[in-house]
Amino acid sequence: MPDTPAPDWPGARLHIVTGKGGTGKTTVAAALAITLAYGGRRTLLLEVEGRQGIAQLFDCPPLPYRETRVATAPGGGEVQALAVDDEAALLDYLDMFYNLRRAGRALRKMGAIDFATAIAPGLRDVLLTGKVKEATTRTAGGKRVYDAVVLDAPPTGRITKFLNVTAEVSGLAKVGPIKTQSDGVMAVLRSSQTAVHIVTLLEEMPVQETIDAITELTATGIPVGAVFVNAARASLLSPADQNRAMAGRLGVSRVATGLKLAGLDAKVLAKRLTAEAVEHAQRVGVQDESRERIGELELPTYELPLLPGPIDLADLFELADILRKGGVA
Amino acid sequence: MSADPLDVDVLLADPTTQIVVCCGAGGVGKTTTSAALALRAADAGRTVVVLTIDPARRLAQALGLTTLDNVPRLVNGVGSAGGGRLWAMQLDMKRTFDEIVEAHSTPQRSRQILANPFYQSLSSSFAGTQEYMAMEKLGQLRTLGDWDLIVVDTPPSRSALDFLDAPQRMARFLDGRMLRLLAAPARAGGRAYLKVVGVGFTMFARLLTKILGAQVLTDVSAFVGALDTMFGGFRQRAEATYEMLRRPGTAFVVVAAPQPDALREASYFVDRLNADSMPLAGVIVNRVHRSAAPELSGPRAEAAAEVLEGQNSPDSQALTSAVLRIHAELMFVSRREQRLTARFTKAHPEVRLREVPSLAGDVHDLAALRVVGAALAGQS
C-alpha cells in the first residue's frame, strides 16, 4: 500500500480532530478520513462520544461496535468507521486482562460499569484512547491494517484532559494493567505518529478556544498538527467593491444602472440590494480579524468554504477534494 | 393557526416574572440572549441579575466581568428613570461547589472534603456538575433576594435537556445505593455487610479495587462519610431547585437557530417542559437571515445576473451581477430557514416564537447588546 505522509505533519498516522462544539469537527474529521484514503489507502474514522455523528453524516444505520465500511475514496481507497463505546471497551479490557467477559456482562446488568466510569472518569478515557491506540498500531501479516486513523475527538474544552491520560489516572492504580495501558497510550500520543488538528470558525469564541487548546496541548507534549478553518465565507464582490462596501461607499446608482440593463425595475430594488451587499461585505470582513489571530499561531492552516448545509455525502467528497488540493496528501 | 409572536417586553415588564431561564442547544447564542434580555429588563426599570456561563471575552468585558469571583457585580452604564439596575456574574462551578461544602460543615471537615481527590474530580470534571452548580447558584441568588428578576444562562451541553436532568442524575449518583455500599466497609466493616449485599457486589468491589486501586475506593468512602454528616442529601437539594423552576414566577425561554439540529433540540425541550408542566414563555430563533427585497425571487435574481454576465460588461454590471448573486444566495438560505421554522411551528402551534435577524459582528459593548435586546423585542 502506498503510504504518502502529508507534508505538513510528516509521519503522522493518528489524526485527532477537535474544535469547539458547533464548528463542524465531525464533518472535518470525515472529510479528512476520505482525503487520507485517496489512491488506494485505507483509513479508520473513529468516534468516542456515543453520538452516532458519523452514521448521520454518511447517511447509514447506526454503527455497530465493529469496524464498518462507510465510503470508498477515489482510486480504490476505503474509509472504515467505528463508534467506540465505553462499556464495550471496558468489557474488551476485562476480557483481555482478567479473562472476565461473562462477569463483565453481569456487572453491566447491575449498572456497575456506569458506576465505575463515574467514580473514576479517567478510567473511561483510558479505555477509549486505548482503543484508538490499538487501531493505530494494529498490524496484520507484518503490515499496518490502517494507513491512517482519524478520531472525531471530544471538543476543545475537554480535549487535553481526554488525551493526557497518564495525568488523569495518576490517582488510580499505580501498577498493573491500567498503568501499563495509559503509559502505552501516552507514548503513542506524544510521538510524531500523532497530530491533533483543531477545527474553528472565523468567530471570536472558537478562535479563542483554538488558541487555548494549542497552549494546553503543547504543554503536555502532544503534537499539534493543523488548524482547519471551517465554513469560511468568501466575498462575491470584487476586492475593490468589497473595500468600498466595508467603508460604506458602495454606490446605489452603479447598482441601479446594472439593474436597468438586466431589465429589472431599479427604483426601490437598487437601494435594498445594495444594503444586502453591504451586509454581506461586513460578514466577510469581520472574518479577517479572526484569520489574523489564527495566522499568528504559525501552524499549517486549511480553509473550507461555507456550504449551504445540511452536509451530505457529496459535500464530504467536495471538502475532501479541497483538502487534497490544499496539500493534505 | 399559530400563536402570536413572543413579546419579551411584556414578559420582562411583568412584575410576577422573577426568573427567566434561557435554554437551548450549544452555539445558538444563549449567553448573548440572556445578557441582552437582562439589560433590556434593567433599562425598563427592573432590578436584575444575570448569571452567565462561559461568556465570550468581549461580552464579559461589556458586562464588566473582568474578575472571576463568583459573585454578582453591578454593571456600569445601566440605569433608567425607573431606577433599574443590572448585576452580572459568571458561574465558577468548582467555587460554587466548594462554597456549598464550606457552608454546610465545620472548617476542619470541609478542609478534609476539599482535599479529597474524589471530591476534586467530582467538582471539576464530573458530567453534570456544571448544570448542578448552575441550579445551585440560581437557588442561592433567589434566597439572597436582592433582585426582582434573575436571568439564567444554561451550560453549553450537547442536549438542552441536560440542564433539567443532569442535577438529578448527579444527585441520584451521590445518594445512590452503589456509592453507599462501596463506602460501607469503611464505616460498618465486617461480615454483616457481606451478607447483606451478596456475592455479586463483593466481586464487583474486588474488581474495582483491582482496576482502580484501593486508594480510589478509600477516597470515595471518606467522601461519602463526610458528606453524610454535612447536609441532608443531594437529591432533596436538587429536587427543591427543580420544584422552584415549576413555580409560576419562572419563565423558560428556549433559544434556537434556524438549523435542523437546534430546532430539533428546541422541540424536545418544549415537549419536556409541557410534560413536566413547566412554564414556557416561548422560543427565540436567533441568526435568521432575512432579505431586504423578498419581492425579487432567488431564481429571477440569478437569471438577471446571468444576463449581465453574458454582456460585454462595464464595471457597474460586474457589481450588479455580484449584488444579484448575493441576493439569490440570501433568498435561498432564507427560504430554507423558513421551511425549517414552519416545520417547528406546525408541530407546536401553541408556542410563541420570535425570529431574530442574524448580526454581522460580535457584541463588543452595551450599545451592541441593546441592539440585540431590541431585536429580541421585535424592533429591528
Average predicted local confidence, pLDDT of chain A: 89
Binned strand content of chain A: 15-25%
Structural class of chain A: alpha/beta
Largest sheet of chain B: 8 strands, mixed
Strand order of the largest sheet of chain B: 3-4-2-5-1-6-7-8
Number of DSSP strands of chain B?
8
User: What's the CATH C level of the largest domain in chain A?
Assistant: Alpha Beta
> Which percent range fits the helix content of chain B?
55-70%
| Intertermini distance of chain B | 25 Å
The CATH topology of the largest domain in chain A is given as: Rossmann fold
**Could you give the order of strands across the largest sheet of chain A?**
3-4-2-7-1-8-9-10
Distance between the termini of chain A: 14 Å
Q: Output the number of helix runs of chain B.
A: 16
Task: Please summarize the sheet with the most strands of chain A.
Answer: 8 strands, mixed
The CATH topology assignment of the largest domain in chain B is Rossmann fold
Radius of gyration of chain A: 23 Å
User: What integer value in Å does the Rg of chain B equal?
Assistant: 26 Å
Give me the secondary-structure topology.
The complex is a heterodimer of chains A (329) and B (380).
Chain A lengths: L13 E6 L5 H11 L6 E6 L5 H5 L10 E6 L3 E7 L2 H13 L2 H10 L1 H8 L1 H17 L1 E2 L2 E2 L3 E5 L3 H8 L1 H4 L8 H14 L3 E7 L3 H16 L4 E9 L6 H8 L5 H10 L4 H20 L1 H9 L5 E5 L7 H13 L4
Parallel strand pairs in A: 1-7, 1-8, 2-4, 2-7, 8-9, 9-10
Antiparallel strand pairs in A: 3-4, 5-6
Chain B lengths: L7 H6 L5 E5 L6 H14 L3 E6 L4 H6 L10 E2 L10 E6 L2 H11 L3 H9 L1 H9 L3 H16 L4 E5 L8 H13 L2 H11 L2 H23 L1 H15 L5 H13 L3 E7 L3 H16 L4 E9 L9 H13 L4 H33 L5 E5 L8 H11 L4
Helix pairs in contact in B: 2-16, 4-7, 5-11, 7-8, 7-12, 8-12, 9-10, 9-11, 10-11, 13-15, 14-15
